[in-house]
Amino acid sequence: MISTETDILRAAEEWAAAGRGVAIATVVETWGSAPRPVGSHLVIDGEGNFLGSVSGGCVEGAVVAEAADVIADGRPRTLEFGVADEAAWKVGLSCGGRIKVYVEPVRAEAAR
Prior knowledge:
The protein is of the alpha+beta class. Helices cover 35% and strands 29% of the residues. Strands 3-2-1-5-4 form a five-stranded antiparallel β-sheet, sandwiched between helices.
């Protein structure tokens, strides 16, 4: 089953309201070949559970790992992956594109 953006945002709200540490990642920029469009979301909880997609493959794993830090320290981050970046090859983004992903914490108060 493919999750809709509404499902993903609803999960973020429900997980935060239930007291789980939550971060949401959003594709904010793409260039060239990118598997997901701007506005795509991935919600992640403190235990590494996630719903949605911002890219696929190893890029997603890198975003989930970074989200753990966002949940822990509460500071948002902008992540960039691209073919000119050595990190891009490590995470499997060798298709000629570039993506920028904003990862931010979701606060329980904001979820209500």
